Amino acid sequence: MAFTLATILAHPDDETFGSGGTLIRYVSEGVAVHSLCLTEGEKGWAGGDGAPIVPREHVGKARALELEEAGRRMGLASVTCLKYPDGDLASVKEEYVVRDIVRWLRQVRPDVVITWGPDGGYGHPDHIAAGERATRAVELAGIARHEPELGDHVHVKRCYRFVIQAEFIDSLVRLMPEFAEYMTTLATKPQRWTHDRLGALIDVSALMDRKWDAMQAHRTQTPDLNMWQRVRQAEPQILTQEAFIRAFPEPGGPPLETDLFVVLKARAAAALRPS
């Protein structure tokens, strides 16, 4: 049985820097993977640190193109980039964003959805807003009577929220002092996502080179890439797992899964057995 996976995230590069190894894994297994980005990331880096400088007014368009290239490198079935304001997603009327997500979900019809966790990874307000609106949209997309003009309802089977393990945050603080300083400016602080709180942990150790190749498609974000390269060189082992909690069913942490599709695969196999 062919499955479909969808990501709903805030910025171009979230899909690669965050859960890129997971996406590459499932593409390699024959899963159709679609990515929705809610902003063009126009407030992000405009190049520098060895990359060409992009005029500020062109950064959003450049980053949307980088997202397309990263998606191509990972083998994604589609990437879609909306134009909600970078850095101010939470101020947009929630129903507008949710409506766009519902429409998209009913088009790509995923079995599994990935979005940002409740703390936005490290407290980023756009990430937090994206996760909240995505989980609401997943619920509404499955209600037939909810805005049927947006398409036929779709029942997402499982929804996961990407989180950053506590050990990973500790390493970032130690290895990337500029990033640690940035986190102190954010209103929401990252939660301590220890192993016992996780719902899924995906081993991406064999896919790190492919993930790094896709990350490098985001050339305007070279200052961030250079920081990640320092982490890669100093403590590569912390990059070999990508962590999630479940939004539903069984929201939260344990039992720990090592495959986001393990339940769906088991159900499909059972349906094929002779009665």
Can you describe this structure?
The structure is a single chain. The chain has 275 residues and is α/β, with parallel strands linked by helices. The chain has one domain (4-272): Rossmann fold (3-Layer(aba) Sandwich), CATH 3.40.50. It is 42% helix and 16% strand. The protein is built from eleven helices and seven strands. It has helices at residues 14-18, 20-28, 59-74, 94-108, 120-123, 125-141, 166-175, 177-184, 208-215, 222-234, 262-272, and strands at 4-9, 32-39, 78-84, 112-116, 158-163, 200-203, 241-248. The protein has a seven-stranded mixed β-sheet with strand order 3-2-1-4-5-7-6, sandwiched between helices. Helix 3 links the parallel strand 2 (32-39) and strand 3 (78-84). Helix 3 packs antiparallel against helix 9 (208-215), helix 4 packs across helix 6 (125-141) and helix 7 (166-175) packs across helix 8 (177-184). The protein is globular and about 60 Å long. It starts with a strand and ends with a helix.
